């Protein structure tokens, strides 16, 4: 059986004034999987994400999404193809409620202008879909709460809801657990597991327990290069990974 990769890079490289942040990265993300990108600080993870979502142009190399070359495409065009980066594109509006935030994202997906002079039927349709998305991420009781008043973990869940409103085929999550307490982490892990049921997820994450429990495949970066790849058992048993990443985390 031929393996189905939704996102592939070949020789992906990014140089900044004599410094190479990402060097010859060949990344392949299997359709329908949860794939984690890990590595110590300065390993090139965020630069890699910026290249994949077109916030940065590569110095060299190619990126293909669903078999289509997207190397020179603009970020908005890549997003329209269904490759959406959460916590960047979907930053929430602090003084809008949970429902209003999701409704704005739904309007963006429809391609409508951000006006609110709509027929009652259109708004009612959006409200129904918005409430369903809030329910999907466990935020029904926060529908009428402004984002600024939400606990940190719930705000993160709202960001995922607004990303889901854009109907992504593939979600890129940039450190979804950053700054969270244990209880919030458990909720967001369950949420990511739930929303990944019919889509692909690529995430940068520092929390190794999260990565171990959630990811099908893990790519370890160090100094901008791929050091190892495989499931958690494989990469965590790799002595080079232990030295570069695991040792640094626990020592």
Give an overview in words:
- With 251 residues, this protein is of the alpha/beta class.
- It has two domains: 1-88 and 171-181 and 201-251, P-loop containing nucleotide triphosphate hydrolases (Rossmann fold, 3-Layer(aba) Sandwich); 90-165, no CATH class.
- 38% of the residues lie in helices and 24% in strands.
- The chain contains nine helices and eleven strands.
- The protein has a six-stranded mixed beta sheet with strand order 7-8-9-4-10-11, with helices on both faces.
- A hairpin with a 2-residue loop joins strand 1 (5-16) and strand 2 (19-25).
- Helix 3 packs across helix 4 and helix 4 crosses helix 5.
- It is globular.
- The mean pLDDT is 87.
Key phrases:
251 residues; 11 strands; 38% helix; five-stranded antiparallel β-sheet; alpha/beta
Question: How would you summarize what this structure contains?
Answer:
It is built from 9 helices and 11 strands.
CATH architectural name of the largest domain: 3-Layer(aba) Sandwich
What share of residues is helical? Answer: 25-40%
- The tally of structural domains comes to 2
Q: Measured on Cα atoms, how large is the radius of gyration?
A: 19 Å
- The residue ranges in which pLDDT falls below 50 over 5 or more consecutive positions are none
CATH homologous superfamily name of the largest domain?
P-loop containing nucleotide triphosphate hydrolases
Annotation, overall tally of beta strands = 11
> Treating each run of at least 4 consecutive H or I residues as one helix, how many helices?
9
Shape: globular
**What distance lies between the first and last C-alpha atoms, to the nearest angstrom?**
43 Å
CATH-defined fold name of the largest domain: Rossmann fold
| β-strand amount | 15-25%
Q: At the first level of CATH, what is the class of the largest domain? A: Alpha Beta
Helices and strands, in order, run as EEEEHEEHEHHHEHEHEEHH
Which class of secondary structure composition applies to the elements?
alpha/beta
Strand order within the widest beta sheet: 7-8-9-4-10-11
Overall pLDDT metric: 87
Biggest sheet, in brief? Answer: 6 strands, mixed
């Amino acid at each position: 059986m031929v393996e189905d990769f939704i996102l592939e890079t070949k020789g992906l490289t990014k140089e900044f004034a004599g410094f190479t942040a990402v060097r010859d990265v060949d990344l392949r993300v299997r359709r329908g999987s949860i794939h984690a990108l890990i590595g110590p600080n300065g390993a090139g993870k965020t630069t890699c994400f910026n290249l994949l979502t077109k916030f940065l142009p590569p110095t060299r190399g190619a990126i293909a999404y669903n078999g289509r070359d997207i190397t020179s495409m603009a970020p908005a065009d890549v997003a329209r193809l269904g490759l959406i980066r959460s916590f960047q594109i979907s930053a929430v509006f602090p003084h809008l409620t949970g429902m209003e935030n999701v409704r704005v994202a739904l309007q963006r997906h429809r391609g409508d202008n951000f006006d609110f002079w709509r027929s009652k039927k259109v708004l009612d349709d959006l409200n129904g879909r918005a409430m369903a998305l809030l329910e999907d991420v466990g935020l029904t009781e926060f529908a009428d709460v402004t984002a600024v008043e939400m606990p940190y973990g719930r705000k993160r869940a709202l960001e995922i809801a607004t990303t889901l409103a854009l109907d992504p085929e593939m979600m890129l999550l940039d450190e979804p657990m950053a700054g969270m307490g244990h209880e919030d982490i458990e909720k967001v892990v369950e949420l990511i597991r739930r929303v990944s049921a019919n889509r692909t997820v690529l995430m940068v994450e520092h929390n190794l327990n999260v990565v171990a429990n959630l990811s099908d495949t893990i790519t370890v970066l160090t100094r901008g290069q791929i050091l190892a790849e495989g499931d958690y058992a494989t990469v965590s048993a790799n002595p080079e990974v232990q030295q570069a990443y695991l040792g640094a985390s626990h020592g």
